Structure to design on (464 residues):
């Protein structure tokens, strides 16, 4: 049950993370999630800035991953979240889970993302052709927590 | 001393990233600290009287009813939007 | 809505598949699943052979992916399944889904794997230190279909 | 002619990967074909009388009640175990 938590400005390599996750011979499943800066429907997105609460982010992510490891039988778990300025199509977040069976991997990956979206202290500000806007929290992200209760 | 931090839109609106409050000998909740801060000015009142604000004590997400003590790190911020 | 289906003997690169999946600027989420040859509890696994029904496998995988694309709003979908002889820790199967939002990606990825496990004509024979055995279908795999009905 | 295929453990047990059956002018279901094949020998009877066998007509998974016609490709196989 190894756990890697990284909060960093620089980009990350999904390929490298996957290679680490697949090492455990007892694990037959690796699920990865990668979140990317996607274009907006309402305005041209020039980029975004990710603010965070240094120190608390790492703790929050560790707690979420530990909770996942208590709920499901998991091998390695890796969470990476970027901060600072990101351009369209850049990578924002990575969650990777290795597990013996696929159901645990899919569930744990989605659980971690759902909790990260609601509990980890990161804030996005979008830079668009019509101005800068702090992103509003989504009701759908809060609703996503319900099914894990 | 109580260390108080603000983040993201709240930090920008208050034009303040962090402040301190002397609460020696007082038994306060995070909500009571928030009310003290809000009473400082109409501007702060306006931006701190937001039912949606989240609160962390010593880097743990807690309810506003959570107690705080001198030496603690208390943070207020809008709902998070990472990921 | 691009769709890549590959049934092949040679190994695949998760990194390359991921790079293709992340191209779509409207997609903010990429979910990948990789299935690996994992060690057995009851005997030493020397390797396995994957038999398939040529022609039908590609059709079955295309139908499953198409069904996923009808159920959820998806960008690119990629499915790779290997055949032939595989050694411990080798990659067996890859499912990758790009989507605007994460919930669709996780659901579609798991849906595709659940249907692949029950409907795609592949059969595993395990080579162990105590002999060769055809793998028996798992009740849990059949049960996994129920929630998509 | 009906083309008939067997896969995996069933192929090994029957020691047969494919065969043909002349069904000209007959209206048969996959189950009736299976019964015809089973009646060929006690050995085939034993291995084809398996409630768990799956069946595909022209590379589409179907129930044993599915009709087959001359020119079709009919396959019988154990529950699949890929992925």
């Amino acid at each position: 049950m190894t756990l890697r938590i990284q909060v960093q400005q620089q980009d990350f390599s999904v390929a490298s993370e996957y290679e680490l996750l697949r090492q455990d011979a007892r694990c037959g499943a690796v699920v990865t999630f990668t979140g990317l800066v996607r274009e907006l429907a309402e305005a041209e997105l020039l980029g975004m800035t990710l603010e965070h609460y240094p120190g608390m982010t790492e703790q929050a992510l560790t707690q979420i991953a530990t909770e996942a490891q208590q709920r499901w039988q998991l091998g390695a778990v890796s969470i990476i979240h970027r901060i600072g300025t990101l351009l369209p199509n850049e990578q924002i977040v990575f969650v990777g889970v290795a597990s013996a069976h696929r159901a645990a991997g899919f569930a744990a990956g989605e659980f971690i993302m759902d909790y990260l979206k609601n509990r980890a202290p990161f804030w996005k500000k979008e830079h668009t052709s019509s101005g800068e806007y702090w992103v509003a929290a989504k009701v759908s992200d809060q609703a996503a927590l319900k099914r894990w209760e | 001393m109580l260390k108080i931090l603000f983040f993201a839109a709240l930090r920008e609106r208050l034009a303040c990233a962090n402040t301190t409050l002397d609460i020696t000998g007082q038994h306060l909740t995070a909500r009571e600290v928030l009310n003290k801060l809000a009473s400082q000015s109409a501007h702060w009142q306006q931006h701190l009287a937001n039912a949606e604000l989240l609160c962390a004590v010593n880097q743990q997400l807690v309810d506003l009813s959570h107690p705080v003590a001198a030496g603690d790190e208390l943070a207020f911020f809008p709902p998070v939007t990472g990921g």
Summary: The mean pLDDT of chain D is 96. Strands of chain D lie at 2-6, 18-21, 28-29, 54-57, 60-62, 67-68, 73-77. The first strand of chain D starts at residue 2 and ends at 6. Chain D touches chain C at residues 5, 7-9, 12, 52, 56, 59-61, 75, 77-83 (CB under 8 Å).
